Amino acid sequence: MREVAVIGIGQTKIDEHWDQSLRDIAGEAVLAAMRDAQRDHADALYIGNMMSSTANRQQHLGAYIADWVGLKQSEAYRIESACSSGAAAFRTGLMAVASGEVESAVVVGVEKMTDSPGSEITAALATAADADWEVDQGVSFVALNALIMRRYMLEYGWKHEDFSQFSINAHANAISNPFARFHDTLTLERYNRGPMIADPINVYDASPIGDGSAAVLLVPSDAIISSGHPKVVVAGSGSATDTIAAHDRSDPIWLKAAERSVKSAYSQAGIGPMEIDLFEYHDAFTIMAALSLEASGFCERGKGPRAALDNEISITGRIPVASMGGLKARGHPVGATGMYQVVEVVQQLRGEAGTNQVADAKYGMTQNIGGSGSNIVTHIFKRA
Amino acid sequence: MREVAVIGIGQTKIDEHWDQSLRDIAGEAVLAAMRDAQRDHADALYIGNMMSSTANRQQHLGAYIADWVGLKQSEAYRIESACSSGAAAFRTGLMAVASGEVESAVVVGVEKMTDSPGSEITAALATAADADWEVDQGVSFVALNALIMRRYMLEYGWKHEDFSQFSINAHANAISNPFARFHDTLTLERYNRGPMIADPINVYDASPIGDGSAAVLLVPSDAIISSGHPKVVVAGSGSATDTIAAHDRSDPIWLKAAERSVKSAYSQAGIGPMEIDLFEYHDAFTIMAALSLEASGFCERGKGPRAALDNEISITGRIPVASMGGLKARGHPVGATGMYQVVEVVQQLRGEAGTNQVADAKYGMTQNIGGSGSNIVTHIFKRA
Q1: B81/A80 CB distance under 8 A
Q2: Contact between B66 and A98 using a beta-carbon 8 Å cutoff
Q3: Which end of chain B has fewer surrounding CB within 10 Å, N or C?
Q4: Distance from CA of B93 to the nearest CA of A (A)
Q5: In chain B, whose CA is at the least distance from the CA of A91?
Q6: How far, in Å, CA of A140 to CA of A135, rounded?
Q7: Distance in Å, alpha carbon of A15 to nearest chain B alpha carbon
């Protein structure tokens, strides 16, 4: 298997883009990645997207976007695994280039959610859960996470306020990221006063949806690269599932799929959690932030909130997370999120993260979660 | 890139399966493929499906199906490229195994269409076309094909009846296929009396939708195989796009994406159309059958109907097509179709096609078309 490098990155601001269609947004990110790489061609285009069939009445995004961005005749198709669609698309691009089947691939994550009424988006998000045994019983996606959080708090004795630092840290990091949805400071007082959505999840435990797209260009790492950016290679990749229904798990407060996917990624990279300089995790809800830190080997079981309370997760901390704002404050356009994570890690490893730069970052990890922990994809990147 | 073998195949009958859910159907095909291969594990599961988000209110089919069939913790996600979703999923599985990222992969195509009203399915199929510039103008998917067929008839002087043999041949071949939707003989008289859907396409030019699933198990071809079936390997693979809107093509009666994808596949296999012993093409409409034969090198431009009229496409003809009934008579559960094609070619190359056996078949080709020719995936298989 040949090594693969990320040689171009592009992203759009996450916002309500009333003036742009799905293809406008995706095109902006793809063309930015091509410009960044100083290339005008790619053999293939892989698209991470969850809900265009309902939110945009458009499927077949492969031909739709390849055509729009001028990648005439390139191979192109869509990959979907709910909120982990972006990382699953990245993994497809990685395997395509690694196999030798293509010599270059653009991977783009895109979601255009804000044209639809909120109730439709809630229904679309619920398709990530089991239609028969979760959704038809009336459980929304945030309610599922609330059940998991409640159980976690009961098991380990954490209070709601103990989760605050995940969100406060994310908002602090988003302020200097021009692509982030939010640019406001979150205080503990404001966190505590947040309107409840599904007890114990209040609005500041949850990430905002939005419209956005992020893209990269992948080539074999021995290809000549002339863009002038430091080279970043994919050092490890892992992908695993768990039961789709949370209630089918013997241990619903442990991300078994994360544990398995990081194990593969660490093994390929030949490193462990100690070597990771930053971690773009999937903080769709504060409970997922805690569970992700634990299953990835950065904290002991049940100790996720401790790492946040002790400020270990800040840019200068032991394990910086959400370095550009994370899902909580950069925003969570679901099928695009996994690709934002990749773009941000590449910014960090290139030393192009501005005031949010993690000093001397060599290894960065991304982890994208689909469903209530049922599909988890982890990648490790390395400054070459 | 290491060579990949298909060591297990499974399929369900295409029908209106009121008594089975999406996962029941997919599970039946996946488990049949595992049994056929005498294996009980796979590292990964790739799913071709187009419309589960609307037809079944269920996305995230990766975790949903992996969980159901007992592939606990396997990597699993969905691939979508409209009606070519099945072949795109196959190509993903091929690249995954070829890259060395996984050692075994199940690929399954599945579609459960008949629980929804016809109008919803028509709307869902239309998401394969350009939402802004085709669908919003009122053009349904069959209407797009009718426009292409009309232009083709005008250009080359063919009459409607000249397309009859594509459908008559397909119905003849389906009779002995227990998995086919139709088991009735189509006569020329009946073809000519078919109710018109979108002039010049009548009901006998069009393939029927249905519920169905087909699956394979892929491993590196040097892996030990103990199932007793002859080994079939993937000899060539190609995938290409064209403009999503038919009206954007300078030559809308030529499948440029097919031409490009077969070129890649032939080149990898080191052969040309003369060596192909059977061709499972995408006869969603008779016009697509003609265009596919031409762009794949089996007929001259404009001569597709001639090959059918001269009986060259029958089991004993020069280039047997739709050997188990094709989309027209086996049926077209859209996201599953590409995988039915693969399963049928493997049946033929193994010598397990019963009364439909193509004598001494060594090379078989599949071609799956998404949209009005905008996404085309071709594979060549070889008896090892």
Answers
A1: no
A2: no
A3: C
A4: 9
A5: B96
A6: 6
A7: 22
CA A310 to chain centre: 24
Q: Give me the sign of the Cα torsion angle B129, B135, B140, B142.
A: negative
Is residue A144 within 8 Å of A197, Cβ to Cβ? no
CB contact under 8 A, B240 and A74: yes
Q: Give dist(CA B230, CA B216) in Å, integer.
A: 14
Sign of CA dihedral A244, A249, A254, A260: negative
The three-point CA angle A268-A271-A274 to 5° equals: 145
Can you give the pTM of this predicted structure?
0.98
B77, B95, B260: residue with CB nearest A80: B77
Query: Cβ–Cβ of B80/A59 closer than 8 Å?
Result: yes
Collect all residues of chain B within an 8 Å Cβ-Cβ radius of residue A84.
77
Contact list in A for residue B95 (CB cut-off 8 A) is: 92, 95-96, 99, 101
B58 with A374: Cβ contact below 8 A: no
Q: Coil, strand or helix: which one is A316?
A: coil
CB pairs A-B closer than 8 Å: 209
Question: Residue B384 and residue B230: Cα distance in Å, rounded?
Answer: 7
B168-204, pLDDT tens digit by residue? 999 999 999 999 999 999 999 999 999 999 999 999 9
CA distance A42 to A107: 10
Structure-block tokens of residue B17: 């399966």
Of B99, B132, B248, the CB nearest to A98: B99
Question: Is-contact B381 B235, C-beta < 8 A?
Answer: yes
CA B283 to chain centre: 9
| Residue B47, amino acid | I
Q: Which residue of A has its CA nearest to B127?
A: A58
* ipTM over 0.90 threshold: yes
Helices (H), chain B: 22-37, 52-55, 61-69, 85-99, 118-126, 141-156, 164-174, 188-192, 256-269, 286-295, 304-309, 334-350
- Closest Cα in chain B, distance from residue A257 (Å): 6
Identity of the amino acid at A95 = M
| Span A4-50, pLDDT tens digits | 999 999 999 999 999 999 999 999 999 999 999 999 999 999 999 99
What is the Rg, in whole angstroms, of the alpha carbon atoms belonging to chain A?
19
